[in-house]
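Need tokens for this chain, all 303 residues.
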Amino acid sequence: MSVPILSARSIVKSFGGRSWFGVAADAKRAVDNVDLEINEGETLAIVGESGSGKSTLARILLGLVRPTSGEVAYYGQPVDAFTAPDWATFRKAVQPIFQDPASSLNPRMRVDTTLANVLRRHKLAARDTLDAAITELLASVGLDAAQFHDRYPHHLSGGQQQRIAIARAMAVHPRLIIADEPLSSLDMSVQAQILDLLVNLKSSRNLGLVLISHDLNVVDAISDRVIVMYLGKIVEVGPTRQVLGNPASDYTRSLLAAKLVADPHIARARRLAMDSTAASAPQSAQPGFPPQTSRSDLQGVPR
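Here are the structure tokens for all 303 residues:
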């Protein structure tokens, strides 16, 4: 069996626990004992409502945040043991795509400068081949270099900004992309274009992709496996069709009930069926929730 690109074992990340004005605050676990693996060519989706720990977990996987305890490994090598050259290799191989493309791009840099800095830093293009490399990168994300190379981020639409962010990530030929809600700040019409772009790039380059999203329609369309998180814990994990088609966790069923569907009659029937099941089952028999959690606590889940 091949070694996964990235793996995490018993990851815990706590925040707080400091004393403020003489009053001690309890530490809160944003990520609580999480295990996962990401394989080559696989799309792994991480879903859950806001505050479930998805973005914190993504930052830990990217090496941007150190876990309180646990271990992250790149091809079996713990990142805690990395040397400077190891980190340089890791930074190229594992690339992020952030939720807000405007904030991830330098507003003072033109598009060609942004991409040229990446290519020069990693010695991926010589001076005489730099323009051709930039043109190829822009073409790979569906942009015409003649039209966009000298634009600043504020001259671009949200979808164009996200394409530049994707081009920057792809410039270093990564093995894994970790995309944290890459579609949520975009218009619906643009979301489909960016999603198709990510899928095509992943397929053509055999990339691993971690997609963090609250949109179960997107997850259902492109992911191979799904991890469902609730209050920092993994409550369900498995193949996408299994988890979304026949969920074992009551929390996953609640997320599915909140999933937007085109037919209001189907949506209403699904919610009624779920509420009927919940009413007839004792709370202790509902998997996926802590004992003190009731279905009324999910009223904040967006519909």
